[in-house]
Write a structure and sequence with these properties.
Elements: H1 2-21, H2 29-34, H3 41-52, H4 55-69, H5 74-102, H6 108-115, H7 119-152, H8 156-204, H9 208-216, H10 238-250, H11 256-264, H12 268-293, H13 315-320, H14 325-359, H15 377-407, H16 413-437, H17 443-462, H18 469-490, H19 496-502
Length: 507
């Protein structure tokens, strides 16, 4: 127990120390939100990966999808690496960096507002971000609380409050730069932790070969006489497996907290290196998580929830409970790292979006600060500092709101967590990607995608999810592309002179 406590204290102290160290680089908006657009490939790649894979993946998704698809769940991690990381960097990295810098965009709603010359788009996009990131933030707490309760016997409430407090401290002090440095440290822990835990869990089953043989002997859920489905290449349900791969891989392309990493990278050359680093990280961490979860059936049937469904969140903890104290401590640090990195990214994205795109979009100065109709450098610096103060206040606000939801979770939170990727990516993926590449996409098409993404996933949830939430999210994302194309063909185009100016950055 002493080892676990000591390692956790050291870890949290380092996180806070980095925040204090980075505070000088967070004095203005560019520094606080984007790290001065000078973050290197290693920090950016690790920040991308750690924001991607939270405790939700390690505890929730690994357990749930590993139970459903067996060892074939590993394909989800491979898809995350090749589509969600490598291809995302190749397709979006350079163009996002160049265009957002050219139009001076700092957030995804700001991108929509400037790229399509619409303040209304900016405001609505901000509202969508707020609506779906806050519950997502609340859901991040669950994974860490489960393992903290297992490792320390600490009540759930104290776990979530502590994690929120320490994360808020280093983000408030150091902004994006502190978040990126801590993400790098947390990423190293995640890489070492997942490989060590996999080795320990497989060893408890007699090694890899014996564990696979045990999986092959398990009967199918729908046919007790059929064995081996959970140890096959594509598992017992390839159709829904593909839906999970699409949602969790392609979905990152439309998530503001993920795409925002490309805004901050220091130069174009760094994008190539960042893509390679990010992909390797994803293969090890995501592939490892789902591979580990694939052996969940060897550790017994999880308990039932009050609604009669299996408690999938209990699967991974049940696999780890017999490990030595030192490995339990490593697992706790692994999940704590995954949770805090994701939480930091989410609250920073939410606070910066609300500040820059709604509260302070048109307020340049206070009465009496402007002389002769212009803003001098001193006033401009004051304005920047005020924006940073507002963002820091909002970070506290968002953390408190997410805490309130996490401490008193309504029944819909788990469902909303499941559809948040579908709603956000369904609304933003096609507009953002086509906005980077296609001059002909129209403002009306963007509105249509917003309605489609949020409407489809929201209605599906409200009427009891007649479409599997995973497949619904995948449909929302893919469906945005034909909708954007069709609507763009029949709706008014932006002036050619305006789009030509936007696309000058690629020359």
């Amino acid at each position: 127990m002493i080892t676990k406590i000591l390692l956790t204290i050291i870890f949290l102290s380092i996180m806070v120390g980095v925040g204090i160290y980075s505070r000088k680089q967070a004095a203005n908006v560019e520094g606080f939100v984007l790290g001065g657009r000078s973050v290197g490939p290693w920090l950016t790649a690790f920040s991308y990966g750690t924001s991607y894979f939270s405790a939700v993946v390690f505890v929730g998704y690994a357990g749930q999808f590993g139970w459903k698809y067996g060892l074939a769940a590993t394909w989800i991690g491979i898809g995350n690496a090749l589509i969600g990381s490598l291809l995302a960097w190749i397709v979006l990295g350079r163009r996002t960096k160049l265009m957002t810098q050219h139009i001076e965009s700092r957030t995804m709603p700001d991108f929509f507002g400037t790229r399509f010359n619409s303040q209304s788009l900016r405001i609505v996009a901000s509202a969508i971000v707020f609506a779906f990131l806050i519950p997502y933030t609340a859901g991040v707490y669950k994974g860490i609380s489960t393992l903290f309760e297992m490792g320390f016997n600490i009540p759930y409430e104290y776990c979530v409050i502590g994690m929120a407090l320490f994360t808020a401290i280093y983000v408030i002090f150091g902004g994006y730069k502190a978040t990126a440095i801590n993400d790098f440290i947390q990423g190293i822990i995640m890489l070492f932790g997942i490989t060590t835990v996999i080795a320990a869990v497989l060893s408890s089953q007699g090694g890899l070969t014996q564990a696979i043989e045990k999986m092959a002997s398990l009967p199918a859920d729908n046919n007790p006489d059929a064995n081996g489905g959970f140890a096959t290449l594509f598992g017992p349900d390839i159709k829904n497996l593909i839906g999970v791969v699409i949602l969790t891989s392609l979905g990152t392309w439309g998530l503001p907290q993920m795409v925002g990493k490309f805004y901050s990278i220091n130069d174009e050359k760094a994008i190539t290196r960042g893509a390679i680093i990010s992909t390797i990280f994803a293969i090890v961490v995501a592939g490892g998580c789902y591979f580990l979860g694939g052996f969940g059936r060897l550790f017994g049937t999880p308990p039932l929830l009050p609604n009669g469904r299996l408690d999938f969140d209990a699967i991974v903890p049940s696999m780890l409970i017999t490990l030595p104290d030192i490995l339990i401590a490593l697992v706790i640090l692994l999940v704590l790292s995954a949770s805090m990195s994701t939480l930091a990214s989410l609250v920073l994205t939410s606070a910066s979006t609300l500040t820059l795109d709604i509260i302070y979009r048109d307020k340049k100065s206070l009465p009496g600060e402007v002389e002769e109709g212009s803003i001098n450098d001193t006033v401009s610096e004051k304005v920047e500092r005020r924006k940073v103060v507002i963002m820091r206040v909002l970070i506290v606000f968002f953390v408190i709101i997410s805490l309130m939801i996490a401490l008193n979770p309504p029944t819909f939170i788990a469902q909303l967590m499941g559809i948040s990727w579908g709603a956000l990516a369904g609304a933003f993926l096609a507009p953002f990607m086509l906005g980077l590449y296609w001059r002909g996409i129209t403002t009306t098409a963007i509105w249509a995608c917003f309605v489609w993404g949020v409407g489809l996933t929201g209605i599906n949830m409200l009427i009891g999810s007649p479409i599997n939430p995973i497949n619904c999210g995948a449909l929302a994302m893919i469906g945005g592309f034909p909708i954007a194309w069709i609507v763009s063909l029949v709706s008014p185009k932006l002036p050619k002179s305006y789009t030509d100016k936007i696309f000058e950055c690629y020359k």
